[in-house]
Amino acid sequence: MAIKVLVVDDSSFFRRRVSEIVNQDAELEVIGTASNGAEAVKMAAELNPQVITMDIEMPVMDGITAVKQIMASKPIPILMFSSLTHDGAKATLEALEAGALDFLPKRFEDIASNKDEAISLLQQRIKTLGRRRLFRPIGRTTAAIDKVTSSQELRPSRVSSTALRQPAALATQHSAEKSPRASSVTRASGKKYKALVIGTSTGGPVALQKVLTQFPANYPHPILLIQHMPAAFTPTFAIRLNSLCKIEVKEAVSGDVLKPGCAYLAPGGMQMMLERGGAYGRIKVIAGKPDMNYKPSVDITFASTSKVIGGDVLAVVLTGMGADGREGARMLKSVGATIWAQDEASCVVYGMPQAVTTSGIATKSIALEQMAEAILKETANG
Q1: Active-site option among 82, 201, 346, 365
Q2: Residue 231: what are its φ and ψ, rounded to 5°?
């Protein structure tokens, strides 16, 4: 049965274009279009769509207000369309905080390198949101953009049609596989750590905000954050996290010497690596190569962390599409690091955590609500 989609935008041209793209996929069906937020709220209640695509700036009622009203009455997965500007980033983060799950650039040339890839990515993003078995609003936070792919090796290749189909395949595969799960916060292992590294994608800012806001200001280790997000968004997201958290959060720049109680967010469009320097290491930010799907890449940061810090690391893989982080986590585990994953029930998309869980790399699968407490207990020893 096709996933039912409601398309909301004040531009008749954009409504028509998005509808054409959605209806090109046999697994998707546009059941209605709306030209403003007020119409969207009314039609969402009447038509019961499984996914809504939503513009931000519209007459009568803007997209942010519409998201709030839809989430307050009958929550539905919402994909926002955004402009990749500073103002666009701020507005999109507000919409996502209101309850939307994900976003994509409104200009298709900003989505991917060619038209066909952009169309496939939009279709896959809608299908991924529509296939969630249980939709529960996660709360007031943000979500992120990512490429849909599977990381088969440390140096990712271009997005393929097989990779674009992978999230659905992974969901089917998981039903027949068992994964380690911590139903409650377990006792700390007693291992000593030097750093915490967290990788995530779609739904990640939701998870990051929930986890990091529970950390005390005197958290004893540096934290590396790798979130799939474009360059226009990471500065705003870092500032937002810093305003909400007791620890310091900043967008990483080359030369940053890691210090305890500070989280370094990988800048969008770049790769964040570690090199030797100071007590824990020093950050090196390099340009992301054109043929790499993820900029930033969890695999790249995890791999460099394994070389600089070694096994004294707790690496956590949170919600996200694809499998970025699996090979980097494998390298970390090979030098003695501890790998945890978010559990399926609390993920927006169970792709990245599943990749490290079903491959036997992650030792624990933990609910988002319990993740902060588990991390704090595990890493209490400096």
Answers
A1: 201
A2: -60, -30
Separation of alpha carbons 232 and 227, rounded Å: 13
The helix (run of H) or strand (run of E) holding residue 264 is strand 262-265
pTM higher than 0.90? no
Per-residue pLDDT of the chain (382 residues; tens, 9 = 90+): 899 999 999 999 999 999 999 999 999 999 999 999 999 999 999 999 999 999 999 999 999 999 999 999 989 999 999 887 778 888 888 888 888 999 888 887 666 667 888 899 999 999 999 987 545 555 433 333 232 222 223 333 333 333 323 333 333 333 333 444 444 455 678 899 999 999 999 988 878 999 999 999 999 999 999 999 989 899 999 999 999 999 999 999 999 999 999 999 999 999 999 999 999 999 999 997 877 889 999 999 999 999 999 999 999 999 998 999 999 999 999 999 999 999 999 998 999 999 999 999 999 999 999 999 999 999 986 5
In 3D, which of 301, 311, 295, 103 has the Cα closest to residue 198? Answer: 301
324 catalytic, yes or no?
yes
Specify the 3-state DSSP secondary structure of 116: helix
Phi-psi region of 261 (alpha: psi -120 to 50; beta: other; left: phi over 0): left
How far apart are the C-alpha atoms of 199 and 138, rounded to whole Å? 18
Q: How far apart are CA 258 and CA 12, in angstroms?
A: 50
One of 228, 256, 297, 304 is an active-site residue; which one?
228
Q: Which two tokens stand for residue 360?
A: 């036997």
Q: Please say if 228 is a catalytic residue.
A: yes
**243 belongs to the catalytic site:** no
Determine the Cα angle at 172 with ends 170 and 175, to 5°.
105
